[in-house]
């Protein structure tokens, strides 16, 4: 009996890494291939509990390297692709937009060509609600799958561009695809440059916590494990060609998030330091996930339960985020996989 083969790009990152673990543990008869270039945000230490499992395979590769990707597809004959790999830090996109266009647009196009040529059964492109632009503070307004794309940062523009390429390959070539657009994720193995893990690590070390502007920007928070379940469902049961929004029904201002963490850890709000607002900082994101819920998905974490679980995870797993902050995590994958510094 032929084993199902799934390629997961960006599986050393935050959301992709959690999805790799979800799939490896849930589907022992699937062969899960984690393809990642291991840039600064790529970390294989998170996979130490699954790296010896027979159904887990790691391949170091650049998704923009056409020869490497085509060779991999030709050799393995993947059934499914779940595409997470992307440059994703908005601040970095403002200072280095070319990197985002190169990886997020060209890399997606290379993967689409490979998927088309070798006939994958489904290509799931994992995107973001940021492609929709921003909402005002009216709580009745939400992003739906029909909301026009109006990205406001180089990062979100590069993701919107890749979304449109995926759609075009479906419309032009008949490639079976789905696009998912999620709200802000949080949870285990979140790289410490992002708001929630940055706040947790700073509070634990009694360091100042930078908050952009007045802290009133609103995000809809989605636990990464809920997100993984959603993508799993779309991969297997999503209607070909459809877009599915994935939201957590958990809107909070950035300042509320920071204060919640400070209170939970018993520290003072004097740690908060308001800093100059980010360029083009979107006011509010909020997703209507009704379409996905009709497919059979609902988030299991409220923000209260999810943030408590996340804080506990960071307290219990200092070995992970402390070696990220120190840079030692890069030594782990070089030792385990005999990789160079390239």
Automatic annotation (TrEMBL):
InterPro entries attached to this UniProt entry: dTDP_Gluc_deHydtase, NAD(P)-bd_dom, NAD(P)-bd_dom_sf
Class of this enzyme: lyase
Enzyme Commission no: 4.2.1.46
Catalysed transformations (reactions): dTDP-alpha-D-glucose = dTDP-4-dehydro-6-deoxy-alpha-D-glucose + H2O
Record's keyword terms, sorted: Lyase, NAD
SUPFAM superfamilies: NAD(P)-binding Rossmann-fold domains
Pfam families, per database record: GDP_Man_Dehyd
Domain of life: Bacteria
Gene3D superfamilies reported in the protein's UniProt record: NAD(P)-binding Rossmann-like Domain (3.40.50.720), UDP-galactose 4-epimerase, domain 1 (3.90.25.10)
Cofactor(s) of this protein: NAD(+)
GO terms assigned for molecular function: dTDP-glucose 4,6-dehydratase activity
UniProt domain NAD(P)-binding: residue ranges: 7-310
Family: Belongs to the NAD(P)-dependent epimerase/dehydratase family. dTDP-glucose dehydratase subfamily.
NCBIfam families attached to this UniProt entry: dTDP_gluc_dehyt
Protein's name in the database: dTDP-glucose 4,6-dehydratase
Species: Neobacillus rhizosphaerae
Upper taxonomic lineage: Bacteria, Bacillati, Bacillota, Bacilli, Bacillales
